[in-house]
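Tokens help. One example:
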Amino acid sequence: MNNEIPRSCFISSFNIRSIHYSWHSMLVLLALGCNPNSTRPPQLAPVTGAVRVGVALPPDLATQELADQLVVDTFPVTVVRLEDGYLETPWFDAFTGTATDDRPLGPEVVRLRAWIDPGAPQHSHLTVELVFRPLADPSRPERQLDQQVPNDHPAAIRLGRALEAVTARYPARIGH
């Protein structure tokens, strides 16, 4: 009887250790990639139906370009966080584009938020929501009441023009 350990056992052990070390390496890299100092609102993801487009700009420049274009198209952008790729407006009158203290109820009062995330090198993905609250329900968190405005809404049409202007100036290559 041979007391030697077959070579295949060493290879299996090595592979398992490699996977183990690779898994830990991935966790470390993920932790390093997270920015604990981000000023994006926590637990806030775009609503269903938010518009997503790609541009050939890094996230900080794409954020500034989008903010500038939205202001040109009468969106009252008040928060621009270049380092986080985030911007937003207060609730505003959908027809005049002016910020309002009116209760955000119905399609006449809307709010815009945008998340700009890295894509391929020197490219970004812009995800933009334009929401309204169709009803008031004190039993639900306010965020759950937000809904994307329909495509034929006047503010959605202005948003479409703004996004077309940005993507025309900085078109992303297919697949980015």
